[in-house]
Amino acid sequence: MLKETVFTNLIREHQALLYKVTSVYTDNKQDQEDLFQEVVYQLWKYFDSFRQDSKITTWMYRVAMNTAITHLKKKKRRPDVLPIAEVFIKQNDSIDDVYEERLRLLYKHLHHLNTLDKGLIFLLLEGKSYNEIALITGLQVSNVGTRISRIKKKLKTNMTKS
Amino acid sequence: MEIEELQAAWSQMSNELEQQKKLTNDIILDMTKQKYQNKFVLVTKYETLGALVCFIISFLVVLNFNKLDTWYLQICGVLTLSFLIILPLMVLKTLKRIKNIDISKGSYKENLSLFLKTKNRLLKLQQIGIGFGFIGLLFIVPVTSKIMSNKDVFLISFKKEQYIVFTITLVIFAFFCKWAYSGYQKITQSAQELIKDLE
């Protein structure tokens, strides 16, 4: 199969993953679109360097998250305005208000975390085990556990406040 | 609201996204050609342009260095040249370092640490630039004045109005520098804390 075909199939199959990474690291639609394109470009650029010794999604998470770190924001927006959540929510009319509100709150709290905490909690939300999180982030497994429980506490405090 | 409820909302969103396969092969292939302008490319372009202006001015100062006929004007000339050459070069070098971070290698932690350190260096350089810009007035003005109109500002007696205008300009510039400097200070401070946390 052609390299292009393999790559486009891969991106099509895992586009949800990319949407989620880019939505966590940006707070408006324009920035998200820019980051999405940058991530796809970087994945293509390093596609040949992917070795089969890890899962393709692990490699994709790593490249996408590493790209997000160096992504520059266009300008600062008010942190509480989260149109990015609407990008997902408004695509389906049947979605209930409670879910919409939860998602809005989730993004609000995620965007208040620092880059490292954001990455860790994102991977946790994605259902990754501490081992997988350690593999992607380069932290030690025990460190991942400690940090995550600290972030959970922080999130809980923030949620209680708001 | 509990964290578990947020996790449930995230899972629901993930399921819905899985069903929305909107990208076509053409769109994906378009993205691989990097048609849009990467923001770092844009920043580098502006910084390169700024550096070029600095280099052209320093070239003119070198060409006219013989017009600086006293020891203090020559010192001002050397300081002006250093300011116009060293700082832009260091900024460009730092930008190149950021651009060259190989995101396919290294973990999230390593890349984040490297990026924050390099970004901090860039911000510090810009901070120094602002500080020097203020002090720089004291040595750049005599050099340009001597080269452009052959006047030694250290020997000219100014009118009262000229002193007032100069003082007002200095005060406004000082306020601007203080504002910009503290802005950078806040950003570098939070990055520094995260670097410490990573180590």
Automatic annotation (TrEMBL), chain A:
Pfam families, per database record: Sigma70_r2, Sigma70_r4_2
Annotated GO MF terms: DNA binding; sigma factor activity
Keyword Transcription regulation: yes
PROSITE patterns registered for this protein in UniProt: HTH_LUXR_1 (PS00622)
Domain HTH luxR-type: residue ranges: 127-154
InterPro entries according to UniProt: RNA_pol_sigma-70-like, RNA_pol_sigma-70_dom, RNA_pol_sigma70_r2, RNA_pol_sigma70_r4_t2, RNA_pol_sigma_r2, RNA_pol_sigma_r3/r4-like, Tscrpt_reg_LuxR_C, WH-like_DNA-bd_sf
Gene Ontology biological process terms in this record: DNA-templated transcription initiation
Keywords: Sigma factor, Transcription, Transcription regulation
UniProt-listed Gene3D superfamilies: 1.10.1740.10, Winged helix-like DNA-binding domain superfamily/Winged helix DNA-binding domain
Keyword Amino-acid biosynthesis among record annotations: no
Similarity comment: Belongs to the sigma-70 factor family. ECF subfamily.
Protein name: RNA polymerase sigma-70 factor, ECF subfamily
Organism of provenance: Maribacter orientalis
Automatic annotation (TrEMBL), chain B:
Alphabetically ordered keywords of this record: Membrane, Transmembrane, Transmembrane helix
Membrane-traversing stretches: 40-65, 71-92, 122-143, 163-181
Lineage top rank: taxon: Bacteria
Name of the protein this chain belongs to: Uncharacterized protein
Species classification: Bacteria, Pseudomonadati, Bacteroidota, Flavobacteriia, Flavobacteriales
